[in-house]
Amino acid sequence: MKSLAVLHASQLVTLAGPKRPRVGAEMCELAIIRDGGMLIHDGKIEIVGPSDQIGKNASGVETIDAGGRVVLPGFVDAHTHLVFAGNRLDDFERRIRGETYVQIARGGGGIWSTVEKTRAASDLDLFAKAEKHLQWFLRCGTTTVEAKSGYGLTVDDELKILRVIRQLNNDRPLEIVPTFLGAHAVPRQMNADEYIDLVIHEMLPRVAAEKLAEFCDVFCERGYFDVEQSRGVLTAASKRGLRLRLHADQLTNSGGAQLAAELKATTADHLEKTDEQGIAAMKSAGVQPVLLPGSVYALGLLDYPCARAMIEADLAVVIATDFNPGSSPTASMPMILSLACTQMKMSPAEGITAVTINAAYSLNRGDKIGSLEKGKLANFSVFDCADYRELAYWFGIPQVHSVYVRGEWVAGDRRGDRHYN
Ligand SMILES: [Zn+2]
Fold it and tell me: Which residues lie closer than 8 Å to 132 by C-beta, 6 or more apart?
């Protein structure tokens, strides 16, 4: 039973508030404590308050002096494709030269090239690569990630990816929330209906029996899986006790947001092409939008999702990296915050809410993480700046000083600043 005190944060950004995701003007309320501190016991937060108050309760306790830096809850990344082999550097250059998605796919690139490399990789190989990705997340201040399967597209390969996620979750400090995305693309040897059949009747029963995923996701998009096929997979997953997420309206407005609402999905993700009807449907069903500006940016596109309209409609907006080799090769939440502010016109405070407490609720973990409050896990990051707005402002500059999970140091600088009161 170890205790730890954190003192002298210029801003302890607590996100304390109602026990639910934040909407509308609440997204700007960060509940900041100036010269703030925390007392941590056995990996959980015990007291949060001004440093002088915490100091009085911390005699003999190991103490971290935040030295006038900003302290935030660990970022919660609610949408990643963590486990894959290889990269898409050739696609990257082709896109720069002006080739289209279809031309790249015909030239041997696209998602299929990642599927082939991931199938060929051993468990150990995938584990080592994903471990490296996790290290990137930690170094950028993220302490929880959702991770999807979806680069296997056979029963064995999808299970292989989900088992790697389970192993990483057991071995590494960063918590991973697993999502089954068997319906990510149609494999070459099959048509979409045949493959959907395999997903529903062979993959889902195995995933559920081995408890390999908490959520099920589908890529609902023209040329991938239509609304009816997506509904089939998600309804079957729901019957097996999985919660639902959905890749919706990324390239075309195909009714994905409405489907998410109809099925009471936890989230609808992407939403670049969602219209007012889609927003209204999500609002009436309590679906959380997960916006992914990194993929718009990295594809060199201009149509960012309408974050302002969603906030004004009182949706509990989440933003995430969409970390993947094809369209969003970044694990950096500060970069995503910058894009949210500059391209989607979210305020820095709204951005912080979207990557902490709202993201935690979207992963069914709002009672454990996402804010610095009594009883929650002591997952937090110290940033080398004095004002939280600097995270989104100084873009591309690493500002993470140190990162802690359950009160234990996991990344960054641990020299100095430590003493016993
Ligand atoms: Zn995705």
Answer: none
Cα-to-centroid distance, 247 and ligand 1 (Å): 7
Measured in Å, residue 320 CA sits from the centre of ligand 1 at: 10
Question: How sure is the predictor about 176, in pLDDT bands with cuts at 50, 70 and 90?
Answer: very high
Ligand 1 centroid–CA 201 distance in Å is 24
Q: What is the pTM of this model?
A: 0.97
The residues placing their C-beta within 5 Å of ligand 1, an ion, are 322
Residue 65, beta-bridge partner list = 7
292-333: pLDDT as tens digits: 999 999 999 999 999 999 999 999 999 999 999 999 999 999
Q: Give residue 209 CA to ligand 1 midpoint distance, Å.
A: 25
Q: How far apart are CA 184 and CA 89, in angstroms?
A: 21
Q: Measure CA 279 to chain center.
A: 21
CA 216 – ligand 1 centroid, Å = 12
Give dist(CA 180, CA 404) in Å, integer.
28
